[in-house]
Amino acid sequence: MGNSEKSALNALGGYSVREEIANAMTHGIAVLLSIAALVLLIVFSVREGAGALAIVSSVIFGSSMIILYTVSTLYHAIPNLRAKRVLQILDHSAIYILIAGSYTPFCLITLGNTTGIVLCSIVWTIALLGALLQPILLKAADWLNCVLYLGLGWCIVFVMKPLIEALPSGGLWLLAAGGVTYSLGVVFYLWERLPYNHAIWHVFVLAGTTLQFLAVLLYVIPDAPGIAA
Hints:
Protein name: Hemolysin III family protein
Strand content: under 5%
Oligomer: single chain
Membrane topology: Multi-pass membrane protein
Distance between the termini: 63 Å
Largest sheet: none
GO molecular function: metal ion binding; pore-forming activity
Number of domains: 1
Radius of gyration: 18 Å
Structural class: mainly alpha
CATH class: Mainly Alpha
Low-confidence stretches: 1-11
Transmembrane segments: 21-44, 50-72, 93-111, 117-136, 143-164, 170-191, 203-221
CATH topology: Rhopdopsin 7-helix transmembrane proteins
Keywords: Cell membrane, Membrane, Metal-binding, Transmembrane, Transmembrane helix, Zinc
C-alpha cells in the first residue's frame, strides 16, 4: 500500500483489519436485529389494534434502524477506498436519520399534539440538513458531528413536562437510559487510541437503540390511538 493510500485510509478511520472485522460484525448483527425489530413493531401495532399512525411511526423507526446499521456494516466491510469515502458520508448521515426516526413514535404517538408535530418537524428538518451537509461537516471536523448528534438527541428535554405526563414511567426510564447509553458511547468513539474503540462505540449504539425500541414496543404502541380513533 502506497503512502497516499495509507493517508486516505487514516482519514477514513485508520482501523486495522481485525478492528474493521469487529466493526462490521457488530453492526452486521444489528442489521438482523433491526429487521426483527421492525417486524415486531408492526405485529404489535396490529395486535394492539393501533391505528395507521402507530404503524407508520413504527415503519419509520424500524426503517431508520435498518438504514443506519446496513450502511455502517457496508462502510466497515468494503475495503475499496472510493466506495469507503462515499459510505462514510452515508454512514454519518444515517445517524441523523436514526435520531429523527427514534423521535417519531414519541412525537406523533406519545405527545400526539401540536407540540409533538412541531418537535418532529424540527428534528427531521435538522436531521435532513445534517445528512445533506455531511460532506462539508466531515471535512470541517468530525467532533462537530458528535456535538450535533448529542444536541439533536437531547432536545427532547424541551418537552419533558408533557412527555412525563403522557409516557408511563417504565417508558421514560427506557427512553432516558437509551439516551445516556448513546451519550456514553461517544466517549469511546472519540477515544481513538483505544484498540477496538469503534466496535465498542457500535455496541453502545446498538444498546441505546435496543432500549428505545423497548420503550416504543412496550409503552408507546400500547397507548397509541386505536383504529377507530
